[in-house]
Fold this sequence. Notes:
The relative contact order is 0.11. The radius of gyration is 21 Å and the shape is globular. Strand 10 (262-268) and strand 11 form a beta hairpin. Helix 5 crosses helix 6 (121-129). The chain folds into 2 domains: 9-61, no CATH class; 84-280, Rossmann fold. It has 13 helices and 11 strands. By secondary structure, the protein is an alpha/beta fold.
Amino acid sequence: MIDTGQVTWRELHAEVAALLPDHEARWLVEEVSGLDRWRWSGSAPAAAPARLRAMVERRTAGEPLQYVLGRWSFRGLDLRVDPRVLIPRPETEVVAGVALAEVRRRAGPCVVADLGTGSGALALALAAEVADADVWATDVSADALAVARANLAAVGPEAAARVHLAEGMWYEALPADVRGRLRVIVSNPPYVTEAEFAGLPPEVRDHEPFGALVSGPTGRESLEHLVAGGLDWLEPGGSLVLELAPDQAGPLRATAEAAGYADIAVQRDLAGRDRVLVARRPGGAPA
């Protein structure tokens, strides 16, 4: 138990590190202190041990570290996260990189959409890294959009002004005037099956939003809906970029081929697993 008397930041770190991995202890102390570890000197304020103890208790009870901290990094953006949204993961950073590459295949201003935006991670990465992109970020969850709205501050006022938040289910949330004009549609939709949910790690199953994880009996329901509707919303040559589970890559490639997409490919994540479907609307000027 952390002492509530006068203690130094380094003493607090040592006590937390006896209960949690050292790197987690460091992140928690840095969050409470507002200082990186190289600047831990002197005694902690009187209220700090109690705040730190509450965070340690949440973490040792199984709550994800990212929710305990209340924020997490995504491609250099410091994003707020809580149980209303999925935790940004390295796999989704790969998705962002693929989407950015697809946007940059053509020069000039463009319109892109992140469907099921959650924390806003994908949409905000696109807005931050493509200066002439107009970005639509949609979600069926008003709670998720509240988190995304709070995260607009992470990209600064200029980029934030190019991000438009809209509530609704997938394509239904988009305004009619962007139909046929989207250079890229990107999404990290639910792709866990109902049967798989019970076997997820407790940190995921018991804390992250069910609706953002589970799609249905096959896990492909949301992915298939996004593939089916994408051609109507993409500009000629525009790209649909979807995160999926490795065992879904083959079926979704076949679905995209049957729907009429061209240049269909599957990109791998950092662990070498099939993770990102890329499918383009035929037509448009050569890249």
